[in-house]
Amino acid sequence: MRRLLLPFTFLLAASCAAPEAAADSAEAQKTLTVTGRGEAVAAPDLAVVTIGVQTDGATAAEALRANAAAMSATIASLKSMDIADRDIQTSGLSVNPRYDYERNRSAPEVIGFRASNSVRVRLRDLDQAGAVIDEAVSTGANSLGGVSFTFADPKPLYEEARRDAVADAKARAEQLADAAGVRLGPILRIDEGAAPGLRPERMVVSAARMEADFAAPPIEAGESSLTAHVTLIYAID
Q1: Interatomic CA distance for residues 222 and 141, integer angstroms
Q2: Which domains does the chain have, with CATH numbers?
Q3: Within 13 Å, how many C-alpha atoms sit on residue 141's CB side?
Q4: pTM for the whole structure
């Protein structure tokens, strides 16, 4: 009988100790989590222009040959304006059939092909943006995907935004702790969230609006911002 009582006594003691251990664990895990946001604003020093060429042909080869000639002329004109090779990058190339839906919508007829080619051009001289667009259109480009502004070296701005985010998170933590009547302990963990990308102002011009007397459009860079998000986890004393 004594041999049976010993295990039972041990299990009873363990079950009594479990709530105490759980309470100690819960006490040790008291934390406060806050997220701060920081923003750095500056005038951008880099513009990105998307320039495209669309050409039609009776066959895919014909459309592509016409497109290649027009895009080659466009790229040559860009390079003549002292834009470096590394700042011109092909961003899209396609050849697709063109259909006539008027005669038979259920089985449209192929009436030709359209070739499209576009390049992303980085401009390190923002004052050059309007002239570059004008030159590209004059030499063969007939579509603009947009103009966006960014920073050649965003690192200093990100560092400023991170500092502001940490300061914002600390202020939030102190305010919440004061309102809750608790005292903040040390920071247990720091996490950086993914900073959203820039929201560039974009200008889009369709091929139908590309006329021979297309004038250089005014381009204003304004200001752009970078944001950072930081999450701090505090211990609560």
Answers
A1: 26
A2: 44-152+208-217 (3.30.70.2970)
A3: 26
A4: 0.63
